[in-house]
Amino acid sequence: MPLIRLDKFLASSGAGTRSEVKKLLRDGAVTVGGQTVRKPEFKIDPNQETVVCRGQAVLWQPFLCLMFYKPAGCVTATQDRRQKTVMDYITHERRKELFPAGRLDLDTEGLLFLMNDGALAHRMLAPGRHVEKTYFVRTEGRITQEDAAAFAAGVDIGEKALTMPARLTILESGAYSEAELTICEGKYHQVKRMFAARGKQVVYLKRTAMAGLALDEGLGAGGWRELTPEETERLRASC
Ligand code: URA
Question: For residue 1, what pLDDT is reported?
């Protein structure tokens, strides 16, 4: 195992973001083999040395994130007594480390990240971060430019505040309509409730992009692959 920088080891093991980790090191919160180390560039062999951060041993768990094309008909959970879960599709050798970052409804398809970094997942979903998510939507009823204007201004879905400004691109408008909607929050059933607030029922919903990454359509429903290093960088940067 090649030696790696202590700050990289801590960040990729979920101890915090790179800047949080630098602060922990500055504050003297990290020991390697019982000695306090404050230098982020200090090199360690993760398989040999014991690293302790704020009194807790840090386990060597390199970052892993899968892009998963969730099919309809499975729940976004790691286990469920009755229903098939997203994890039932994953055969990756490290699948036990993974959990879904966010959720899609039982009948919603599309992009879901499965990862092992709780801090990153937390940032990705934190209401204050406004990470963008794009959905392809099919509705019963005609989607109009008035709907686009209403979504841009914010609609009442029964929460304390109106929804945040969202971008709607109409692809087809008729008895059944199709559109692309980009939102930057993740309230429960948000897209369905936004269309319901405009008197339209969503009959098909698929997430096509999130946090600056588009769903790889080459995967097919139920397919998954690891993120490339470039995608990982983009994901981290957008969260
Ligand atoms: N909005 C919804 O209504 N459902 C989803 O699964 C995701 C966003």
Answer: 63
CATH architecture group of domain 132-210 = 2-Layer Sandwich (3.30)
| End-to-end CA separation in angstroms for the chain | 29
CB distance 189 to ligand 1 below 6 Å: yes
Cβ–Cβ under 8 Å, residues 123 and 17 = yes
Which member of 27, 45, 80, 105 is catalytic?
A: 105
Report which ligand 1 atom has the smallest distance to the Cα of 133: 8
For atom 4 of ligand 1, the residue with the nearest CA is 189
Q: Catalytic site residue 105?
A: yes
CATH 3.30.70.580 positions along the chain are: 65-127+213-238
Mind listing the pLDDT tens digit for each residue in 219-233?
Answer: 999 999 999 988 998
Atom of ligand 1 nearest to the CA of 186: 8
Q: Who's near 168: CB < 8 A, 6+ residues apart?
A: 143, 147, 148, 151, 152, 179, 180, 181
Domain covering 4-57 in this structure, CATH number: 3.10.290.10
Q: Is the pLDDT of residue 129 over 90?
A: yes
